[in-house]
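4.2 Preliminary Data

To establish feasibility before requesting continued support, the project team ran the inverse folding procedure on a target of 92 residues. The structure was first converted into the token representation described in Section 3, and no sequence information of any kind was made available to the design step. The complete token record follows.
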């Protein structure tokens, strides 16, 4: 496997303690909330019009129900980070 370029290693070393995890979690949460609201409004609109739910509605509901797992963060195991020089480049 090829090594990382020296400029990348220097960048990672200089920014080792920076963490954007909170910002990423907030953005993810906002978009999940928007998805939940939009699907809920879609279902309400269908009910108000008296139209039965179609397969695309059920797929949208299933996607919203399963989406929170996609945006929750699970920290990597401590033993993985202990063996890695650059935590952003670790493949745990």
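Position-by-position output of the design step:
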């Amino acid at each position: 496997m090829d090594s990382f370029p020296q400029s990348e290693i220097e960048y990672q070393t200089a920014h080792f303690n920076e963490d954007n995890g909170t910002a990423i979690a907030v953005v993810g949460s906002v978009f999940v909330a928007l998805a939940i609201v939009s699907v809920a409004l879609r279902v309400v609109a269908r009910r108000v019009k008296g139209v039965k739910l179609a397969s695309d509605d059920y797929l949208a509901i299933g996607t919203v129900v399963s989406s929170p797992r996609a945006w929750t963060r699970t920290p990597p195991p401590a033993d993985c980070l202990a063996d890695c020089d650059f935590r952003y480049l670790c493949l745990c």
